[in-house]
Design brief:
Bound molecules: adenosine-5'-triphosphate, magnesium ion
Number of strands: 9
Structural class: alpha/beta
CATH superfamily: P-loop containing nucleotide triphosphate hydrolases
CATH topology: Rossmann fold
Helix content: 40-55%
CATH architecture: 3-Layer(aba) Sandwich
Strand content: 15-25%
Largest sheet: 4 strands, mixed
CATH class: Alpha Beta
Order of helices and strands: HEHHHEEEEHHHEHEHEHEHH
Number of helices: 12
Strand order of the largest sheet: 4-5-1-6
Length: about 280
């Protein structure tokens, strides 16, 4: 999570999911709750995501519909609430499943604001009881919204990707305070910060200064990941024309260093969780 746009939330959510599955053999579900659906566009070729969005199949919208609601009309089709067990996730790879984002999330936000914030947690409780996945990774939109709130209620942990420039670093205490406040408002939430991970790092004076500044800020009580993801042309140039999701992942972007970095970040994230569980 980060309120700053374009810091790599989606890139990390998708690629950490990929590594958890590919490198560590975990069963992973990735959920895109961003109405802008960037994660969906990163994972699927255009024809596929257009189909997913048009038909509203395999989308996270399904989680938020409630039996008490009237059905919602989308593209002249009535979309009914279904039980959680009937929500169809889309397989990206074996044991890596996905629920897509949807522009129509805006629609239910406007109509059903009060109830929807608990639905994601209810779905998570359902998944936990079913023991379907080892990890569920949620990609959130940048702005505080009912989607972000639902993710805070539903999650055990959040990860904060930060670009180490002055503007992004300024947002760090702000985000931490916002989440603390939301957590206090929502009694149901037990979310903890897993830490800050630097993305798009460059060996620049400004970046190194910002990193030093945060390192020495004890008041935040923030864990900072030892592993960073550097800014790399190979990552920015990942082609959305590739037909297979695997070819759009950092793991296969052609840079061995980038691959090592994303694996190291994922490994560190796993360690942080198991340390917390002890
Ligand atoms: N390490 C990196 N090196 C180069 N480009 C990167 C790197 N990480 C992310 N990018 C690129 O930066 C852009 C923004 O990344 P991303 O969409 O992950 O950010 P975001 O925080 O999810 O944005 P938003 O707030 O809009 O949801 C993308 O085009 C992505 O390919
Ligand atoms: Mg994003």
């Amino acid at each position: 999570m980060n309120m700053k746009g374009g810091v790599g939330k989606t890139t990390l959510a998708v690629n950490i999911s990929h590594i958890l599955n590919k490198e560590f053999g975990h069963r992973v579900l990735t959920i895109d709750i961003d109405p802008q659906f960037n994660a969906t566009q990163l994972i699927f070729p255009k024809n596929d995501w257009i189909h997913i969005l048009r038909e509203e199949i395999h989308t996270s919208l399904r989680i938020y519909l409630d039996d008490d609601f009237e059905s919602i009309r989308i593209n002249d089709k009535l979309i009914n609430a279904v039980p959680f067990s009937k929500i169809e996730t889309k397989a990206v790879e074996r044991n890596w499943h996905f629920l897509a984002g949807s522009l129509n999330l805006y629609k239910i936000e406007l109509n059903y604001f009060k109830i929807l914030k608990f639905k994601l947690k209810e779905y998570m409780d359902y998944l936990r009881a079913e023991r379907k996945y080892d990890y569920v990774i949620i990609d959130t939109p940048p702005t505080p919204s009912s989607w972000m709130r639902s993710a805070i209620i539903a999650s055990d942990y959040y990860l904060m990707p930060v670009k180490p420039d002055a503007v992004s670093v300024m947002g760090v205490p702000l985000l931490m305070r916002l989440i603390r406040e939301l957590k206090q408002q929502e009694n149901e939430s037990s979310i903890e910060c897993l830490g800050l991970v630097y993305n798009m790092y460059e060996n620049l004076k400004d970046h190194n200064q910002q990193i030093e500044l945060l390192k020495n800020n004890d008041r935040l009580g923030l864990y900072i990941f030892e592993n960073k993801l550097k800014k790399r042309a190979n990552i920015a140039a990942i082609s959305h024309n590739n037909n297979f999701a695997a070819d759009r992942m950092i793991y296969n972007c052609g840079s061995q260093d980038a691959r090592n970095e994303i694996i190291a970040i994922t490994n560190e994230l796993k360690k942080r969780i198991s340390y917390d569980r002890k």
